[in-house]
Amino acid sequence: MESERPNTTIETYEHQHQLQQEDDDEEEEEEEENNEILKRRISSHPLYGLLVEAHLDCLKVPSLFSFQLLPSY
Fold first, then answer.
1. 3 in any annotated domain
2. I need a labelling partner for 17 at 20 to 30 A (CA). Which of 23, 33, 50, 71 fits?
3. Domain for residue 63, yes or no?
4. What is the pTM of this model?
5. Which residues contact 48 (CB under 8 A, 6 or more apart)?
6. Residue 45 banded pLDDT, cuts 50, 70, 90
């Protein structure tokens, strides 16, 4: 029965690289799955709408009129 172990330095490197790539792919899939779970938990929170509204309010560009309302020091 032939062994599937690499028998040269290059084959050993390629084999290790392949194993590392498989591990990285599994970690990325797990991280992506965890991110999706977290997104669902956040978006289903009862106060999520207020969070989005507050965020959008922060992004609004102030108009020249709103600057005139600010007290001058």
1. no
2. 33
3. yes
4. 0.48
5. 42
6. very high
